[in-house]
Specification:
The complex is a heterotrimer. By secondary structure, chain A is mostly helical. Chain A is 73% helix and 0% strand. Chain A has 14 helices and no strands. In chain A, helix 5 crosses helix 8 and helix 8 runs antiparallel to helix 11. Chain A starts with 5 loop residues before the first helix and ends in an 11-residue tail after the last helix. Chain B has two domains: 43 residues; 278 residues, MetI-like (MetI-like fold, Orthogonal Bundle). In chain B, helix 6 packs parallel to helix 9. Chain B is elongated. By secondary structure, chain C is of the alpha+beta class. Helix content of chain C is 30%, strand content 20%. In chain C, the strands form seven sheets. Chain C has a four-stranded mixed sheet, with helices on one face. Chain C is globular and about 70 Å long. The N terminus of chain C is likely disordered. The chains are: A mainly alpha, B mainly alpha, C alpha+beta. Chains in contact: A-B, A-C, B-C. Chains A and B meet through helix 5, helix 6, helix 7, helix 8 and helix 10 of A and helix 7, helix 8, helix 9, helix 11 and helix 13 of B.
Chain lengths: 301, 326, 585
């Protein structure tokens, strides 16, 4: 699939080693890299089916199931925090922007959130880290601890990447929230609510926001891919042993079995998350379940 | 801005060939009205500000040969890491190259990659998405599952795997980002095409026996193109950031040719003693990406106020049940 | 009784003889004293214990030295299941010294890495023709599971290294250093504590080869053999729980995050005062792949020492931040490192097949500029092999007219040579460039513009790099930042190895073969040095197959309270056991 040679990389580890062609050839054979690609792929496929989850890493011989078991929770926590934080912060901001449309509050909200999408997160990460060192002589801890071991250290190390990811994520949520609140405000039921003399605030929160939940939840699913992209580099800068960093590393050294297994896992996760989101629609918007005609009320409208 | 120009040019071409289509006239009228600068200045001052910045950047990019005081590649080790001043406006880098000139030339690589990849990604994504929506049935199912799978890959991962496969070059980076965008655009254009597909004029065209390809290209795509271009402008900002991320991993534009991402990557080891080596390309990159994001936002508000893309669930069924709400 | 006594006596005599063979560093005339015109940067290398700097007058008692956890950065996860037979990666060897010890039967001496010291073997004895080497093992060496270390372990390890395994259609590849040990014909156990190694050809420097710090015994026979018999031929040290022989035993490993080792109470080495090593309670290796992240963590006091590995070694610019935050609480250890080069593929047709062209390029390059631009300010221009190395030709910068003339004159000469070769209008030439360090390539590209040469950089990432550089497709390549402290070690990269994947320069010059043969047959160090000089002159000047441009100085930060460090004078793979380190705080 990919050019490049993992065998030489193993032997020299990115450094330098003098080794003979025979050693290289023998190692290729040991790792099964001399077999036909179809055979290699078949072997990998079989290992996915028989519960080994892709067999072993070519670089370090570790079972991929163990690698995933270790890396997955880290990324899961990182992404969960980021999503939670961005929803908590940006939905109100989006409502505010819609409410004060084209006034300074609206511009301020957008000026703050859009750079999250426009700044390369590795650069902002390094700037923040350097700033912390220069001003406070402080840096986050360097050894990842799970929240069950030491919750304080856990938050110290994971706080900055979460903040950066949430910033990036927020720009999308704010925009969608704002757009939908604006849209919904002109709907009949809102107009009638207003006619009934309900306060602006009540209308925004009870009716408009409730209706805007569907697109907000949708964008959470759709933006998950970008969110995961964001973890790739941040994980390596902040020393988080997660999936993203693992996948980049595997791609760079052509650890095929790991790439294939992790990629399959990610696709599976993305599909499941979006399936769950489809189910959530039913909860936040009962019309979806009530009427067969309206099974997908927002589809392609 | 470039994208806006492309929209107008495209729509003009389309106008020539399909001037009878009422919908198109409507949408052209909408652009004309909404792009009216006076009105825009009132309703969207930010767009005007960052539009002006974008035009400046594009201008500098095109006339880099005249604007930049130095050759961006020529090294002078004796004057390395000099701070900004008379001799070097933005200072000099590790090899004594002029940072100002490199930022200006860097915009060439960065904008070239971002815009080209978005154009490629948008065109291919639109064709795939529209075709899939039009044909429906198993074609739609198969292509949608393929797109689901591609969407499952975080875009950066897909780009990394592609660059690693193709080898590091400007073309490879462009293709990688384009491919990473295809599934996003395909899903978007499919959602739009699904709604257009059942419109009367499409049904009419079908009933007089027009070829499917002709219907797709003459009737459906022109109607979905506006909103898609609005998203494309936003994707340019994404592409700029993805390029810089690839550079950070060492898979970006091959040195010594400057790109903003590459300059950030190279300069980060000097961030403290020579912050200017990263600050200026960083600012250029962020402002450009920001402007494109804002432009995308504005265009989206114009073409697609309801943010249609995010309107569809992840597994759209093609049900047109609430079209009437439009 | 008498027989045994005389055997020991003979052994001792031969050991004495042997120990005289590699010339101690002090016997080599000083660089400066010979070369008044030396323009090199004054490299202040502290060859031995860091304590030498602070003065070792008040050596504290053992109670004061004992205890504490040392926190070091490591540049990545150790690859290949910690298998020292598989990889020379510094990401493994920075950790492996503590786990598996600084050597095998022998090691590079801590006080002088150009000498060979006993490690797991108490003594050794060659036969008169230097084809059989008998090593007598210590009897107080234990694996970390407290199993006695025996000659059978040595035999198992050597056999596994040299020939790997083959059972049915399953195979285990031999060790990557198999080529270095390839002269071994057989390994025999002489009970109770001896191992006899028979070589195919005489080699009086066999322990020199064995003392390569990369050859660590990480393979406990009593744990691995059962696994192999069960069909798991690829069993790695990680698979058997990282049971080693070194001063520290494995405690915990969180991939991508941290690797922890603890003091091994049954370790055999003792310090000069008779106290058991190591002093530390343990070492935490924190995996930090980003150099800037490492700098930041170090400066805020989260690390006691930096990582080894190119990219993590400090530059002048990064040192600024360290000294500002930590003032004199940080010490910068310097290790002589690898060379950046321009090596030609003479087997591929192109203008570089003309010796005059290669020579012109060598004369043209402004090597001094490479030090700040490429090596972060720490380095010196040199032909090869570091100044502290006894095999380094101290007069090289003068003697072969390597770099002596002012740049302008050299460049005039280069222009003439190019014109003479018919390339006054220049030409285009490819150059492999590692995506990980593009600075050298960018530097070279700009340098050669003036000579009319358009250097086309082919940027390749880590996965592709090793494949591309071993092909015969490239025009030129940078070689790699390898450290090859003994002249014989360079044959793999400089020799006539047109078919060897690792040769930097591809050429078919049998004259080079002859030199290496002479080198192998040499009986005295003086002779080796002499041949090595001739060889260098032939390779770098007369034929210019390889242009050595500048040599790096690797700079590793340690907090000043980290005492007793043994910083190797060259080769960052050496002395990674940290057995003599203690914390003064």
């Amino acid at each position: 699939m990919l050019p490049g040679d993992i065998v030489s990389w193993i032997l020299s580890g990115g450094g330098e080693a003098v080794h003979s062609a025979e050693v290289r050839e023998a190692l290729r054979q040991e790792l099964g890299l001399n077999d036909h690609l179809v055979v290699q792929y078949g072997r990998w496929l079989w290992s996915m089916v028989n519960g080994e989850f892709g067999g072993r890493s070519l670089v370090n011989g570790q079972p991929i199931a163990a690698i995933v078991a270790r890396q997955f929770p880290v990324t899961l926590l990182l992404v969960t925090y980021a999503v939670a934080l961005s929803v908590i912060v940006s939905v109100p901001l989006g409502v505010l922007a819609a409410w004060k449309r084209n006034r300074w509050q609206d511009y301020l909200v957008r000026l703050i959130t859009i750079p999250g999408q426009a700044l390369p997160n590795f650069w902002s990460a390094l700037l923040i880290l350097l700033g912390l060192v220069i001003i406070f002589r402080w840096s986050p801890p360097i050894v990842y601890t799970s929240p069950w071991e030491d919750i304080l250290t856990h938050f110290q190390i994971i706080f900055l990447p979460v903040l950066l990811l949430a910033w990036e994520h927020s720009s999308h949520i704010v925009r969608v929230t704002r757009a939908y609140i604006l849209e919904v405000i002109h709907k009949n039921y809102i107009l009638s609510a207003r006619a009934k003399g309900l306060s602006q605030r009540h209308i925004l929160l009870r009716h408009a926001l409730r209706n805007a939940l569907v697109p907000i939840v949708t964008i959470l699913g759709l933006q998950l891919g970008w969110l995961l992209s964001g973890t790739l580099i941040l994980e390596s800068i902040f020393g988080l042993p997660g999936l993203g960093g693992g996948l980049v590393q595997a791609a760079l050294v052509r650890d095929y079995t790991v790439i294939q297994s992790l990629a399959t896992l990610l696709v599976f996760i993305m599909l499941s998350v979006n399936l769950i989101i489809d189910l959530i629609y039913g909860v936040i918007d009962p019309r979806i379940l009530l009427s067969p005609q309206l099974t997908r009320p927002y589809t392609g409208s | 801005m470039i994208c806006a120009i492309i929209v107008v040019v495209n729509l003009k071409n389309i106008e020539n060939s399909f001037s009878r289509t009422i919908r198109l006239q409507n949408s052209l009228y909408r652009i004309g009205a909404k792009l009216g600068l006076r009105r825009l200045a009132k309703t969207r001052p930010l767009v005007i500000l960052f539009g002006a910045i974008l035009i400046t950047i594009v201008f500098l990019t095109i006339f880099a040969d005249f604007v930049s005081p130095y050759n961006p590649l020529v090294q002078d080790i004796s004057s390395r890491l000099e701070s900004p001043g008379q001799e070097f406006l933005f200072g000099s880098d590790n090899f004594g190259r002029d940072v100002f000139s490199r930022v200006i030339y860097g915009s060439r690589s960065s904008l070239y990659i971002a815009i080209t990849s978005v154009i490629i990604g948008t065109i291919l994504g639109t064709i795939i998405g529209t075709f899939s929506a039009y044909r429906g049935g198993w074609v739609d199912q198969v292509s949608q599952r393929g797109i689901d799978t591609l969407l499952g890959f975080p875009s950066l991962v897909l780009a990394i795997i592609l660059v690693v496969t193709l080898g590091s070059s400007t073309q490879a980076v462009t293709i990688a980002i384009a491919v990473a965008l295809i599934p996003q655009v395909a899903r978007l254009s499919r959602a739009h095409a699904l709604s257009i597909k059942e419109e009367d004029f499409v049904i009419a065209a079908r009933s007089i026996g027009a070829q499917p390809m002709s219907i797709i290209f003459k009737h459906i795509i022109p109607h979905t193109f506006g909103p898609i271009v609005a998203y494309a402008a936003g994707y340019v900002s994404v592409a700029i950031v993805v390029e810089s991320a690839l550079s950070f991993i060492g898979l970006g534009v091959p040195p010594p040719y400057p790109s903003w991402g590459g300059m950030l990557q190279e300069g980060r080891l000097y961030m403290e003693v020579a912050p200017w080596v990263t600050i200026f390309p960083g600012i250029a990159l962020s402002v450009t990406a920001f402007s494109f994001a804002l432009l995308g936002d504005a265009l989206r508000d114009i073409f697609d106020p309801r943010d249609r893309f995010y309107n569809g669930s992840f597994f759209p069924s093609g049900n047109k049940s609430d079209l009437k709400e439009m | 009784m008498i027989l045994g006594f005389s055997a020991i006596l003979v052994m001792g005599l031969i050991l004495d003889y042997y120990n005289q063979v590699p010339t101690p560093i002090s016997n080599i005339p000083d660089l400066e004293s010979i070369d008044p015109n030396n323009q090199e940067k004054d490299v202040d290398i502290s060859p031995s214990f860091q304590d030498d700097q602070g003065g070792d007058l008040d050596d504290p008692s053992i109670q004061q030295k004992r205890g504490g956890i040392l926190v070091l950065a490591n540049r990545g996860d150790p690859p290949a299941g910690f298998d020292t037979m598989r990889t020379s990666s510094i990401a493994l060897h920075h950790v492996a010294g503590a786990l598996f010890g600084p050597g095998n039967l022998v090691m590079r001496c801590r006080e002088n890495m150009y000498l060979v010291c006993p490690y797991l073997a108490r003594s050794w004895l060659p036969n008169p023709s230097f084809t059989e080497w008998t090593f007598t093992l210590r009897n107080d060496v234990f694996w970390h599971d407290n199993t006695q270390f025996t000659p059978n372990d040595v035999k198992f390890w050597l056999n596994l290294s040299i020939s790997g395994l083959k059972v049915g259609d399953k195979i285990r590849a031999p060790a990557y250093f198999e080529g270095d040990l390839g002269e071994i014909e057989k390994v025999e156990v002489i009970p109770p504590v001896q191992v006899k190694i028979t070589l195919k050809n005489p080699n009086r420097f066999f322990p020199d080869i064995l003392a390569n710090p990369r050859l660590k015994i990480a393979h406990p026979r009593h744990l691995m053999e059962p696994r192999i018999n069960d069909g798991d031929l690829s069993v790695s040290p990680l698979d058997v729980g990282l049971i080693g022989l070194g001063p520290f035993k494995f405690d915990n490993y969180e991939p991508g995050s941290i690797m922890q080792v603890l003091r091994f109470d049954n370790y055999f080495e003792h310090d000069a005062g008779g106290d058991q090593l190591p002093y530390l309670d343990g070492i935490d290796y924190v995996i930090i792949s980003d150099p800037v992240a490492m700098d930041i963590a170090f400066r805020t006091g989260r690390l006691d020492g930096g990582a080894r590995g190119f990219g993590h070694y400090l530059s002048e610019e990064r040192v600024v931040g360290y000294t500002r935050d930590l003032e004199d609480n940080v010490h910068f250890s310097q290790i002589e490192g690898g060379t950046i080069r321009l090596a030609f593929n003479v087997l591929k047709s192109g203008p570089w097949q003309d010796m005059r062209v290669r020579r012109a390029i060598a004369l043209w390059i402004d090597k001094e500029s490479a030090i700040p631009a490429v090596l972060g300010g720490f380095g010196w221009t040199t032909p090869d092999i570091s100044p502290n190395n006894p095999f380094k030709d101290k007069r090289f910068v003068v003697w072969p007219k390597f770099d002596l003339a002012p740049l302008d004159e050299r460049r005039d000469e280069a222009k003439k040579l190019m014109a003479g070769a018919g390339y006054s209008n220049g030409f285009s030439m490819g150059h492999l460039c590692r995506a990980r360090h593009t600075q050298a390539c960018q530097f070279l590209k700009d340098q050669l513009v003036g000579l009319g040469i358009d250097l086309q950089l082919h940027i390749i990432d880590e996965g592709e790099w090793n494949r591309a550089r071993v092909s015969l497709d490239f025009d030129t390549q940078p070689g790699a930042l390898s450290v090859l402290p003994i002249p014989e070690g360079t044959e793999g990269v400089y020799g006539r190895f047109s078919l060897s994947p690792d040769a930097y320069s591809k050429h078919e010059d049998e004259e080079v073969d002859r030199f290496y043969r002479l080198l192998r047959d040499a009986t005295t160090t003086e002779r080796r040095i002499d041949i090595w000089r001739q060889l260098q002159k032939y390779l770098f000047v007369e034929q210019t197959y390889i242009i050595p441009i500048a040599e790096a100085t690797y700079v590793v930060p340690y907090r000043t309270y980290v005492r007793g460090l043994v910083i190797p004078s060259e080769d960052g793979h050496t002395n990674t056991d940290f057995a003599t380190v203690w914390l003064d705080k």
